[in-house]
Amino acid sequence: MPNPFAVLGVAETADDDAIKKAYLHQVREHPPERNPERFQVIRAAFEAVKTRPDRLRYRLFGQETPDLAGLVANALQPGGSRRRPTEFQLRQLLSSSLAGQK
């Protein structure tokens, strides 16, 4: 997926209101009846960055979806609690924590 901020035509520092206004403008310019493919790209971009936690998650992970089950399984392996978590694992944990804030 292309950069959602570029798709919506907003700066990466835009707030929720600016992103929603840009999304609505793009939907008016490219309604799903006329261009369903473009509308899907616009909708996906909006979903990726519509709230502050979503924007943080996008900046940390991009399109990657963290696997909480894999993180827990790794932690429960013998010796798992004595190993330091990797940066990837910490990002997964942070992402799953942010998902609970919605």
From TrEMBL:
The record's section on SMART domains has:
DnaJ
Q: What InterPro entries would the database entry show?
A: DnaJ_domain, J_dom_sf
Name of the protein: Heat shock protein DnaJ domain protein
Q: Which domain of life is it from?
A: Bacteria
Pfam families (alphabetical): DnaJ
Limits of the J domain: 3-62
- Which keywords label this protein? Chaperone, Stress response
Organism, by scientific name, is Candidatus Contendobacter odensis Run_B_J11
Gene3D superfamilies in UniProt: DnaJ domain
